[in-house]
Amino acid sequence: MAEKTSQKLRLLVVDDEANILKSLRRLFRNDPFELNLANSAEEALQVMASTKIHVLLSDNKMPNMTGLELIKEVKGLYPDSIRMLFSGESDMTSVLNAVNQGEVYRFILKPWNDQELKVSVNLALAHWKLNNDLEQMRQRHNEMQDILRRIIKKHPELEPECSRNLDCNELLNRYEDLTIS
What is the pLDDT of residues 148-165, one digit of tens each? Predict the structure, then answer.
């Protein structure tokens, strides 16, 4: 379901190495999104259960649950989140499969280039926002179609105009005095 995005978008970074999290906190300190940090996949799942996360950036090689396992779980629980993976060493076959299956939006190799990482994260956030805006427009379109169907049901004489594919807003403006309840 689409949501209003007047609040800041949120990025969750997951890595079991504290120095990586500190480095990324510094890197993203002036960016226009809210940064959340987790030092394990389990902690990441707890954060996501309590906070709407728009983009997840996870290290792959972590104890107990790999980043790929986390991403697969997040995809099932929060399918509209954008999921990114970064790692210094990885089984490239499983990473490529995850990317190809739509589980991973982007894979980033450690050590990363700061500017490239910032661009990738901001593109992922923009991608989420565009998807959300599109879903809001679809919902609004469906609402307008429902209103139009109710108008036609109550005023069948308008159906010929509607069948000529008039814009719903134009039709509603023309006949705003009609009751639709």
Answer: 888 888 888 877 776 665
Locate all alpha helices (DSSP H) within the chain, ordered by sequence: 18-27, 41-50, 67-77, 92-100, 114-154, 159-163, 168-174
Cα–Cα distance, 121 to 127 (Å, whole number): 10
For residue 145, the SS3 value is helix
Integer Cα distance of 78 and 152 in angstroms: 38
Q: Which residue has the tokens 């994260």?
A: 121
Question: Contact at 8 Å (CB) between 84 and 106?
Answer: yes
39-42-97 Cα angle (round to 5): 95
Q: What is the pTM of this model?
A: 0.79
Name the one residue in this structure whose structure tokens are 């509603």.
172
Which strands, in side-by-side order, build the sheet including 10-14?
34-38, 10-14, 55-59, 82-87, 106-109
The answer to whether 62 and 17 have CB atoms below 8 angstroms apart is no
CATH number of 10-134: 3.40.50.2300
User: CB atoms < 10 A from the CB of 82, how many?
Assistant: 24
Q: Output DSSP code: residue 123.
A: H
